[in-house]
Amino acid sequence: MEKISAARQSKMQIVADIKAKIESSKSVVIVSYGGLTVAQDTELRNEFRKAGVEYKVLKNTLIKRAMDELGYTQFDEALNGTTSVAFATDEVAAAKIVTEAAKKYDGKIAAKCGLVDGGYVDEKGVKALAALPPKDVLIAKMLGSLNSPIAGLAGVLS
Description:
- The chain has about 160 residues and is α+β, with helices and mostly antiparallel strands.
- Helices cover about 55% and strands about 15% of the residues.
């Protein structure tokens, strides 16, 4: 039986942790972050933390291995250069923060691609997600549209 080195065991544990985070997240955004200053990075991490998003800088090979083990091979092309990952329990929170940060920091950070409810989303898809209004606003619009015919009928009858 082959003995596994401590370094390899550590990497296997990190891959297992990444897999668990991917499986428990509603959305995962792969981010290119090159060029941020320490102050900008700290500010960005605080924004992620406030929104309940876990943001980590991870090795491309470990992310790739975790994605491959979960059956997601579409991410191979995006996993090069400086890479960080945002794991969110909300479908749009991570995408919104990354897209706003890209505008704020003049493109020093950008979304490469993402995973939303188990489906691959390219860079354009992540930007489209970020453009969605918050869940509360969507629910209010839906309730308003359901309520308007009844309100109209009540107005006509009175």
